[in-house]
Design a protein that fits this description.
By secondary structure, chain A is α/β, with parallel strands linked by helices. Helices cover 67% and strands 10% of the residues of chain A. Chain A is built from 11 helices and 5 strands; from the N terminus they run αααααααββαβαβαβα. In chain A, helix 8 packs parallel to helix 9. The chains are: A alpha/beta, B alpha/beta, C alpha+beta. Chains in contact: A-B, B-C.
Chain lengths: 275, 120, 132
């Protein structure tokens, strides 16, 4: 029976592929279709079908290798996992329908056929999803590292005054990193005032505000003052609506005001020089 | 095994530099010694420097917070200096804020701050 | 694999436990901030044993989990146990009149934290810090 299925699949290679693409276009997640051009979709689809078919001819190790390669590729392309799992289901449906129509399977050997095709599809299903998840996990952990590298530098702008611009979303992990950079920087630059600029932070929710308050308190403990600058109107609104108490932290709307206050706090000011 | 932390007098201020890890007994002994010294010298300001200390747990923080409040009651302002970044972070994560304490980066800046506060 | 334990009976054992912890943390390559976190966590756990259980043990182990390396701090005592775990994990709860940092503080300092306690039998706290 296995041989019969294989022979059918091999001789109807192109028909199966075309039908598969047609069906998947209808069934698949819109994201998958939109994620790539038509040409890429057809190409990737045919690679997928080839991979499925190679399971018949190749050894277990070789198939494993191909599955890993293919999975890495589709993770990069942004194909969702459902595309693969649905894909396998659709594939076996096409084969079943085709073989039934051409009379290659009859009612009598139908049970044998389903057992055979299941024992073929299921291990493959497992291998491909495992490979997909592994490469997905790897991508996620690489992105996490990349995000950590987007560290927040502390820039000394005047004597005793440093600035830390924050850009992007702040989670607990990143907040810890930022706090370390901030405090090490304050001590090594001998900063008396630090301005933390949150203009580039898209959302300030309770958690982000909590991290900011903690950072400000830690700065005070090492012996400096901390001002939060870049409070946009919508951020002021969310802070008050969420009932977050930022009263113990000095805040201003613009960097300019922040710098002026910092200079005043260190007994200095900017004066215009007459020519 | 009790070690006493030396307390130095400079004009109307007391200077303390903590040089080694504090165990519970030393911390409590220090609390007592400092209060006596404030009483004896009528000091108006105290600077405690922590530059060499690489960790403070909640017990030591409590003793420290208490001694600062007690000094205040006796009319002496306290500035703590040289808290290391790692120490500041662990204190914050423990949930200890030492709210009413004045701080400065180092001993020198601490003394300056104290002089300003005392209005000299 | 290296394990070491310190029996906590008197106040000086608290110092011994945290010194051992700091040395292991240094050896494993933890940064200064994590060293302070680990030392402080051990100090808090050891002090809890000393204050509430009378005696117990702090065990420090190196752990490896795939590519991750780290250290585990286990605090074990046969003291009175904690009747209401949820309450003890709330911020600001303290039965000794301390600052109330206690266990929630330790949880924040470490990456993983678990606690089991049976009244009348004792308490087991396991916590892990991973090397970044």
């Amino acid at each position: 029976m296995r041989k019969k299925i294989f022979q059918y699949v091999q001789s109807h290679n192109d028909d199966i592929l075309n039908e598969w693409i047609e069906l998947m276009r209808v069934e698949a997640d819109e994201r998958a279709v939109q994620a790539m051009s038509d040409h890429m979709f057809v190409k990737t689809s045919s690679e997928f079908i080839q991979l499925v078919m190679s399971n018949f001819s190749d050894s277990e190790e070789k198939f494993q290798e191909r599955a890993v390669d293919f999975s890495e590729k589709i993770v990069r392309l942004g194909w969702p996992l459902a595309m693969i799992t649905d894909g396998l289901r659709v594939f076996s449906k096409i084969v079943e329908k085709g073989m039934k129509e051409s009379g290659e399977i009859t009612l009598e050997d139908y049970i044998e056929f389903t057992t055979e095709i299941n024992s073929w599809i299921f291990p493959m299903y497992k291998t491909i999803t495992e490979a997909y998840t592994t490469s997905w996990e790897r991508t996620v952990s690489l992105q996490k590292i990349a995000l950590q590298e987007l560290s927040a530098p502390l820039i000394p702008v005047f004597e005793k005054i440093s600035v830390m611009p924050l850009v992007g979303t702040i989670d607990t992990e990143r907040a810890k990193q930022i706090m370390e950079n901030l405090l090490e920087g304050v001590v090594s630059h001998r900063a008396e005032v630090v301005l933390i600029d949150i203009t580039g932070v898209p959302v300030v929710d309770t958690m982000v505000a909590h991290h900011i308050i903690q950072a400000a308190e830690a700065v005070r403990l090492v012996g400096a003052k901390c001002t939060i600058v870049g409070i946009r109107p919508e951020i002021a609104q969310t802070i008050v609506n969420l009932g977050i108490n930022l009263e113990d932290v000095t805040t201003t709307s613009t960097m300019k005001k922040g710098v002026e206050q910092a200079l005043a706090a260190t007994s200095r000011q900017i004066v215009e020089v007459q020519e | 095994m009790n070690m006493r932390i030396p307390i130095l007098k400079l004009h109307d201020c007391l200077l303390i530099s903590i040089q080694w890890e504090l165990d519970d007994q030393t911390a409590l002994q220090f609390q007592e010694d400092l209060l006596h010294k404030i009483h004896e010298t009528s000091a108006r300001g105290v600077v405690i420097d922590f530059t060499s200390i690489d960790f403070i747990d909640s017990f030591i923080a409590k003793v420290l917070g208490d001694v600062i409040s007690m000094s205040k009651l006796m009319g002496a302002k306290v500035v703590i200096t040289g808290i290391q970044p790692a120490v500041a972070i662990t204190l914050i994560e423990l949930g200890i804020r030492l709210e009413e304490v004045m701080t400065a980066l180092d001993l020198e800046k601490g003394l300056e701050k104290l002089q300003r506060e005392l209005g000299d | 694999m290296m394990d070491s334990s310190v029996k906590i009976i008197n106040e000086w054992d608290i110092v011994a436990a945290r010194q051992l912890g700091r040395n292991v943390a240094k050896e494993l390559g933890f940064g200064t901030v994590d060293q302070a976190r680990i030392t402080t966590a051990i100090s808090e756990l050891a002090r809890n044993i000393y204050l509430y259980a009378g005696q117990g043990e702090i065990t420090i182990e190196k752990v490896e989990n795939g590519a991750k390396k780290g250290m585990t701090i286990v605090s074990r005592d046969e003291g009175p146990g904690i009747p209401d775990l949820r309450k003890v994990m709330e911020d600001g709860f303290s039965t000794s009149g301390g600052l109330g940092a206690g266990l929630p503080g330790v949880k924040r300092l470490m990456d993983e934290f678990s606690i089991e306690s049976t009244p009348g039998e004792g308490t087991l706290i396991q916590s892990v810090k991973w090397l970044r």
